[in-house]
Each structure stands twice: as structure tokens, then as C-alpha cells.
Amino acid sequence: QVQLVESGGGSVQPGGSLLLSCAFSGYTADYYAIGWFRQAPGKEREAVSCINVAEDTTWYADSVKGRFSISRDNAKTTVFLQMNSLRPEDTAVYYCALGVLSRLWELPRHPLEYAYWGQGTQVTVSS
Asked: Residue 4 and residue 83: Cα distance in Å, rounded?
């Protein structure tokens, strides 16, 4: 059974930082991606960043490029999202998800490309 658990959310002031973690287990194949998504009230879920765990390639949404950084641990059991220079518009519930790759070099960016999801963690940026 595939499980993903997010942690690290909270409340920060604009300009602050948070480190989100996504601990995942139960998936044994070699080629998959872990994505971070967020959903603010009244808005659609949007992709923030993703990492191809086998190729170690990454992608970022334009809105977070240069501020957020995605990485994984060597054991390939946890993916991190370091969020710096946070803005009020970053406020949302953040989800991590696991996507099975049909092509080994993929960096999937659409929620429908991800089969397994965590429960989400709230990030609030406010003064």
C-alpha cells in the first residue's frame, strides 16, 4: 500500500521560510516522480514542483522558481520542498503525490498524472 505523509506546514510572515517533507512508502518500482501541488480556497489545485526520482531532474512553476527548491534523501524515502521568500499568495494546502512514469525522463505536472496523494499540510503566509 502506497502512503505519502506531508509535514512541516505552518504559519510564517512574508519573507519567511518553511521546509515541507513528504515521507513515502510502499512503492517498489524504480521510475516515478514526486510532485508538490497546492490548492488555495476557491482555486484549482496547481503544480508547484516535481522531481523525477530516478533521473534526479526537477521542474518548478514560474511562480516559485528561484524561491522554492525540491530535493530527496539518498534512501529515496523522503522528498523535501524548501520554501524561501514566502509571499501571502503562497498560502494554500500543500500536497505531495507520487506519479508512475510512462517515459523514464518525464516530469509530470498535471494532477491526473499522479496516482497517489498525501493528506496535505497547511501553509499560511501572513503578517
From this structure: 19
Asked whether the beta carbons of 66 and 74 are under 8 A apart, the reply is no
For residue 85, the 8-state DSSP code is S
Q: Where are the beta strands (DSSP E) in 18-87?
A: 18-25, 32-39, 46-52, 57-60, 68-72, 78-83
Displacement of CA 76 from its chain's centroid (Å): 14
Q: Which of 108, 110, 112, 94 is nearest to 33 (CA)?
A: 108
- Cell readout for 44 is 484549482
> Is residue 75 classed as helix, strand or coil in its secondary structure?
coil
- Count of CB atoms situated within 10 Å of the CB of 56: 9
Q: pLDDT for 71-126, tens place per residue? A: 999 888 999 999 999 999 999 999 999 999 888 889 999 999 999 999 999 999 99
pLDDT digits (tens, 9 = 90+) for 8-44: 999 999 999 999 999 999 988 888 999 999 999 999 9
Strands 121-125 and 10-12: parallel
